[in-house]
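Take a minute with the sequence and fold tokens given here and flag any structure token that looks odd. Thanks in advance.
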Amino acid sequence: MKYYLVKTISTATEENPSFKGSIDTYYSGKKRYCLKELVEGSYSRYVDSYDYICKYNLDMYGYKSEAMAKRSYNYKHPENCKLWTCEVSIECIDV
């Protein structure tokens, strides 16, 4: 079965002196639940990477179609600000 998650890649801007160049990638599902997070750069001193993607969590929080994922809050409203820029896409996971 295929599940879809919203993948957000946040990159710290030049105006972010504490985390300049850091990249935070997270995969979220229903109810904005974060299933996986990968942290690179100086931001990794404060946040640990984790991976909770498994069959049970995909059943509970994964979207059943790409269209449902594109209607989610995280896909429609990336958190862009002067300190972080975000790129959003849809990831398909086949279980």
Q: What stands out?
A: DSSP finds three helices and five strands in the chain. Residues 26 and 41 are 15 Å apart (CA to CA). The first helix runs from residue 55 to 61. The chain has one domain: 2-94.
